[in-house]
Write a structure and sequence with these properties.
- Helices cover 30% and strands 20% of the residues.
- It has 194 residues and is an alpha/beta fold.
- It has one domain (2-178): 3-Layer(aba) Sandwich (Pyruvate-ferredoxin Oxidoreductase, domain 3).
- A six-stranded mixed beta sheet has the order 2-3-1-4-5-6, with helices on one face.
- 46% of the residues are buried.
Length: 194
C-alpha cells in the first residue's frame, strides 16, 4: 500500500487534487481511499488531504501517519508546517516551486519541483495572485511516481473539474513534462542538479 499526504491552503484545490489522483488510480485498477483533514475551514488556512492506494482492498480506516510521499502546493507552509512529519525515508516531496531547493533542505528524501503557479497562470486557471494549481500538481506527481497513466489522469480531471476542463488537462500535461528532479532530465531534455 502507498500513502500520500497533500499539503495546501484553503482555496488551492488541495482536496480536489487528492480526489482527482484517487479517481485516476482507480481507473488504472487500484483500490483507493481519499479524505481531507480541515483545521479552520477558510480560504488560506492550512489544509491536508490523504490518499491511500493499493492493488488489494484497503481495510485501514485511520489517518495517515507515515506517508510514502508528500505533495506541497504552497512552499510558504514550510515555515509553519513540518511537511516531512512521519514521511518514510526515501519518500518523494513534490513542491510547487520555480526552482529546486538546496540538496541539504530535505536530507533522506527525494525532492522534485514544478512551477505549478506559472503553468496555471499560463492556462488562465485562477488569477495571477490566486492560481489554481491542483491539476498541474497532480500531473507532475504522476510523472515522478510513473503512475497513474496520463489517460486515466485526463479522464479524472474531466470528471472532477466542472470548468475549463481542457485548460486543466493541458496544465497537468505541461507539469508532467516540466517537473524537475535533481540529476534527471525532464521531458523537455533539461537536466537539473541538486
Amino acid at each position: 500500500m502507498e500513502e500520500i499526504r497533500f499539503h495546501g491552503r484553503g482555496g488551492q484545490g488541495t482536496v480536489v487534487a487528492s480526489i482527482i489522483l484517487a479517481k485516476a488510480f482507480f481507473k488504472a485498477g487500484y483500490y483507493v481511499q481519499t479524505f481531507p483533514v480541515f483545521g479552520v475551514e477558510r480560504r488560506g488556512a492550512p489544509v491536508e488531504a490523504y490518499l491511500r492506494l493499493d492493488h488489494q482492498k484497503i481495510r485501514v480506516r485511520s489517518n495517515i501517519y507515515t506517508p510514502d510521499h508528500v505533495l506541497v502546493q504552497d512552499t510558504k507552509l514550510l515555515a509553519t508546517v513540518d511537511v516531512t512529519r512521519g514521511l518514510k525515508p526515501g519518500g518523494w516531496i513534490l513542491l510547487n516551486a520555480a526552482a529546486l531547493p538546496d540538496a541539504e533542505a530535505f536530507p533522506g528524501f527525494r525532492v522534485a519541483a514544478v512551477d505549478a503557479a506559472r503553468i496555471a497562470v499560463a492556462h488562465r486557471l485562477g488569477t495571477r495572485t490566486h492560481p489554481m494549481i491542483n491539476t498541474a500538481m497532480v500531473g507532475a506527481f504522476a510523472r515522478i511516481l510513473e503512475a497513474p497513466p496520463m489517460a486515466a489522469l485526463e479522464e479524472a480531471i474531466r470528471q472532477e473539474v466542472p470548468v475549463k476542463q481542457e485548460e486543466n488537462v493541458a496544465a497537468a500535461k505541461d507539469a508532467y513534462m516540466e517537473v524537475r528532479v535533481p540529476g534527471q532530465e525532464n521531458r523537455q531534455g533539461k537536466t537539473y542538479e541538486g
